[in-house]
Amino acid sequence: MSHQLAIEHDVIGVGFGPSNLALAIALDESARRSRLKCAPLFVERQPHFTWHGGMLLPGSDMQISFLKDLVSIRDPTSPFTFVNYLHKRGRLLDFINCRTFYPSRLEFNDYLRWVAAQFKSQAAYGETIIAVEPVTAGQTVTSLRVHSRTLAGGETVRLARNLVVAVGGQPYVPQVFAKIAEDSRLFHSSRYLDTVERAGFGGRATRIAVIGGGQSATEVTVDLYSRFPDARIDLIFRGHALKPSDSSPFVNEIFNPDYTDFIYAQSSERRDAIVRNFRNTNYAVVDSDLLDQLYRLLYQQRVGGETRVALHPRSEITGVDARPEGIEISLADKFGGRNRRSTYDAVVLATGYDRETPHAFLEPIRRYIRDAVLDRNYRLVTSPAFRPQIHLQGYSEASHGLSDTLLSVLAARSQEIAESLLSTISRRELIA
Fold first, then answer.
1. Share of the chain above pLDDT 90, in %
2. pTM beyond 0.90, yes or no
């Protein structure tokens, strides 16, 4: 497509997961209220809407209340609430009878897909953004030329007056595994279901290592135990013990939207201290119910005299080698001084995500970005001659608090970004 034929959009959203899905709702509702015309488009690399599809494990529940959906905290009367989803699906009374605030992850994914289907006309699936270039008039950048590549390899070019980036984190591969990152026997938990179902472990003795000490590592370990009766699973982590997440009510208040204002007003040193203090709400911790389930599993092993699952705490991985017979991992006990070496048929990295910014596709406009730290409305600080707004969702934990990568603030954050974007549209219409 030539640049002259490129379609112009008020906003292009990069990624169409929960963050930009919440923004689609906020833009739609705010534009209706203010009687402004806003034409957004959301470009998503997946061929259809899926939220963490690789970890939609049977029996896994949300760790956050259904009331912290895409809109309820901002507007419980919105037609896009989880409660209205249940009503439309004919399950509201049944859900009430379940007496829980925590739906299954499968159901919450279905809720998100239900919302996404209502914004299908604003989404372009199966496209990956590859470059964002400036469009200039004299010395002023007036808009952005957004290049994307389709699954078939074709390229599409669109114009955007503003950009909102919300592509989530990249699966984190520890440096010690970097040299075998392309080995098919090594995979990240983000691809767990897709990979493990093709692995062909059934019916033979298999050794599997799970690396990590958090929720995903524990979920994968329990799932492997039930999925492959002949498998032996080693859960390898650096801590002294698997630790429970703190979801007590007073601590949970750090995820309230107004806490973002408090965090943002602090100095960078104080922000760092607060994030460190509350890391046990979100990082390298496990839901208490799941910990109980794993402990009971290990206890029943002792009763039956079998050892299909083994925990290896305080373990530092000192070496990794890909051999024909499997992936060899060398471990050092950080406190006992003992070393061990084991070979595995498969290794699952439940090692979290890397959220380094800005992204490579922003390189052509890097010179206009003044500061990597976002302003209060999640906007990149750019030079005065740069008119487009660029907002980032899910990349400002250091400045906006721990809730930034979670679902807790979606409703409030999307409204703040929508109002910021619509203010520029309003000014443009007044000038026109």
1. 82
2. yes
